[in-house]
Structure formats: C-alpha cells, structure tokens
Design goal:
- The chain is α/β, with parallel strands linked by helices.
- It folds into 2 domains: about 170 residues, NAD(P)-binding Rossmann-like Domain (Rossmann fold, 3-Layer(aba) Sandwich); about 190 residues, 2-Layer Sandwich (Dihydrodipicolinate Reductase, domain 2).
- Helices cover about 35% and strands about 20% of the residues.
- The strands form 2 sheets. The chain has a 9-stranded mixed β-sheet with strand order 14-13-12-11-7-10-9-8-15. Strands 3-2-1-4-5-6 form a 6-stranded parallel β-sheet, with helices on both faces.
- Strand 1, helix 2 and strand 2 form a beta-alpha-beta unit.
- It is globular, with a radius of gyration of 22 Å.
- The two termini are about 15 Å apart.
C-alpha cells in the first residue's frame, strides 16, 4: 500500500471526507499542466518566467491580482492570452486549471492554499508556508485529506545541486561534529516600493507591516533555517531573538535589523541568523562549522575549508594520487561544485511538474514547510515580545 492509499484509507477510517470531486482536469502522463498564478508581484512574475522555460511542461493560462498595474506587468510575461481574475476563488472554479502558484503576501497564504486544495488544485505555495503556527498545523491536516494533490513550498534553496551536495557531505561526516552555524542575509535598501496612491501603501509595502508580514525572518532568513532543518533532520528547541527599527524611521512596523539564535538540542548545535536593511557588505553568507571543516556557501557557489588536521590528510591524498587531485583556492578552500547550475527556482518548478505527474511528495512539502513556518513564527514571537520561545511536541509534523 503506497502513501496515497495509506492516507486515503486512514481518512476514511477516521471519517475524513475529500471535499472536491476529483482533481481539476485529470492529466495524462504527457499533458501540459495548466497553471493559474495568484499574486503577480516580483515573485509571481519570476515563476511565470521560469515556467516559460518549460513550455512542454507548463502553460500559464490564468492570472489573479488585485492591483491593476501588476496584472498588466504579468500579462507581458505570458506567452499566450490568459484569463484575468481579481477574486482568486473564481480562478479556482476553472476546472481547466490543474495547479496554482500562490505568490501573495504572507497573511493570505493559508486561506488561499486551503481553498485551492479543496477545489482540486495542486499548489506551489511560496515561502513562508503560513503566517502563524495554528495555520501551519491546520494546513498540514488539510493537505493530508487530499493525498492526490501536491502541495510544494517555495524553499527552493534545497533544490540546488550545490546544497544537495553539502547535505551529503554533512551526512558522510566530512565536516565532523557540527556545533555552530553562522548566517547572514543583508541588504542596503529600505525595501520600500513606490506607491501610486496612498491608499495602496499597505497593499504594496506589506512586508513592512506586522498584520501581513513575518519581516526579515520570514522573507530572508527562512531559507537558511529551512536548509538546516533538512540537512540535519532537526528543528530548534529554544529560540532567542533581538532587533529593532534601527535605521529606517519611515512608519514601518517590522524590524529592519534582526538577530535570531536557535538552539538545536538534538543536534547539539547553535544557529545564528542575522539580517539587516542598512548594509550589504556581507550580503548572503552561510557558514556551517564542524570540527573537521567549514562549509561556506553563497547562493550558487560554495567552498570547503578543512581544519588543520583534516587538511594534512587531504594534502597527503593529493600528493599520492593525481586521480584524486584536489583543487585549492588561494584562501585554502576546496570548491564544492565545479559544474554550472541553473537557478534554484528552475529545479524547484521542475520537481513540481514531476511530483504532479508521478504523484510523489516534493522535497519541500507541507511537513517541511510547516516546520520552517513554526520556526519563523517562534523567532518573531521572541523578537517582538523580548522573550524565549520553546518548541512543543505538537509542532512535530508527520505525514502519517
């Protein structure tokens, strides 16, 4: 009995009901997947751009957006005429749409994802999965009721071959015992967008307001947190945060300067995650430190820096056999990947297609996405309330 059968029979046994009457527009193995884009900001347009690179797999057939100028911009990305909607529920009524991309402000994610599943659509849901912990718990439950539908979460970092290789290095013990993780995701800019009408301030600059946004933790740091959860099969047990509106005094509510510290008791690690809006010198830095070596990652590049004893061992191998010749940088690092890679979103969207066609579970799914959503929520609770947060047993999501 496969996963689908297991969940389906479990749902029936417990009185669970499938609320839709089948997946919208049943697909054969060779059909294109018709996609509706809900939310046509930068991320929505970016996903249209990526899907356009896979014309044999996807066709964007509908757009939903409440801001006229964004809808107009998104239409220019589309290769053929599309249906236009202002109310996403009307888009969901279209039985010719097989899947939806949800790239809206964070506070809308839960309702839109839940309604999409209930209408029989596969879902590509941008990170962070949900705005709050209760929503994450509920969306995991809802997703289990629809075993034939794919819900993939947009933590695309884990799809890059570079990051997969780093996970493999960790699993093989090549870093030794990892006890410290140091991450930064910095920018020098206000994050503020031009507003053609003052009434649209919160609709356009939603990231700056707590009612709609998880701030820097959700928008930036969640990527690195998600990778740690995956690479070490772990979650934080204690969460500490601090920060403030320290530079941009422009009426925003979410902090422009944050530092989060996570304690992973199971893995015996400390994770430091920082982000700011007033300096871009460090940009994206991701260091994983073990007693045998350190991995230092950028978006699409990575180096391994062995500790002195490990370096001696590697140089001995290097000197003995040209077949295992190691390439060293001037700084003493070893490149982790030498092959060119595509953008991380390309790999993620490609897997979305595969999972729909094969009925498989995405690498970034409702359980892993829910785990990171809980972590983000706890970090923000600690950040804004100036207190320590703890992981609870009910946050340990499972498929079965």
């Amino acid at each position: 009995m496969d996963r689908r059968d297991f969940i389906r029979r479990s749902s029936m046994a417990t009185g669970g009901l499938l609320l839709h009457d089948g997946i919208s527009g049943a697909l054969s193995g060779t059909d294109k997947i018709n996609v509706g884009i809900i939310g046509c900001g930068d991320r929505g347009k970016g996903l249209i751009y990526v899907m356009n690179q896979m014309p044999e797999k996807f066709a964007v057939t509908a757009l939903c957006e409440v801001l006229d100028f964004r809808l107009k911009e998104a239409k220019e990305f589309c290769k053929s005429p599309v249906k236009e909607y202002e109310d996403y529920r009307k888009l969901l009524d279209d039985k010719n749409i097989h899947a939806v991309v949800i790239a809206t402000p964070l506070h809308l994610h839960f309702d839109m994802a839940a309604d999409s599943l209930k209408s029989g659509k596969h879902v590509y849901l941008e990170k962070t999965m949900t705005y709050s912990i209760p929503q994450a718990i509920e969306l995991v439950k809802i997703s289990k009721s629809f075993p034939d539908l794919v819900l993939q979460v947009g933590h695309q970092t884990r799809y890059l071959p570079l990051y997969r290789k780093v996970k493999d290095m960790i699993g093989k013990g090549q870093l030794g015992k990892v006890t410290q993780i140091d991450c930064r995701y910095d920018r020098n800019g206000s994050w503020r967008r031009p507003v053609p009408d003052p009434s649209l301030e919160r609709a356009i600059n939603w990231r700056m307001y707590k009612e709609y946004s998880g701030g820097l933790v959700a928008e930036l740091l969640s990527h690195q947190m998600d990778f740690i959860h995956w690479a070490f099969d772990t979650h934080p047990d204690e969460v500490f945060s601090t920060g403030g509106i320290d530079f941009y005094k422009d009426g925003r509510e979410t902090y422009d300067n944050v530092q989060v510290m996570l304690r992973y008791n199971k893995s015996e690690m400390v994770g430091n995650f920082g982000s700011m809006c007033a300096n871009s010198r460090d940009g994206f830095i991701f260091r994983i430190k073990g007693n045998k070596g350190t991995v230092e990652l950028l978006f699409d590049d990575g180096l391994y820096y062995p500790e002195p004893e490990t370096k001696k061992e590697l140089m001995m191998v290097d000197a003995v056999s040209s077949a295992t010749k190691i390439q060293w940088t001037k700084g003493g690092g070893i490149p982790i990947m030498t092959e060119p890679m595509k953008d991380s979103t390309w790999y993620a969207v490609d897997e979305f297609h595969t999972c729909i066609q094969q009925g498989s579970i995405p690498l970034s799914n409702v359980v892993t996405g829910g785990t990171t959503a809980v972590c983000v929520h706890l970090a923000n609770e600690a950040l804004y309330n100036r207190n320590r947060q703890e992981w609870k047993p009910e946050y340990n999501f499972q498929f079965f």
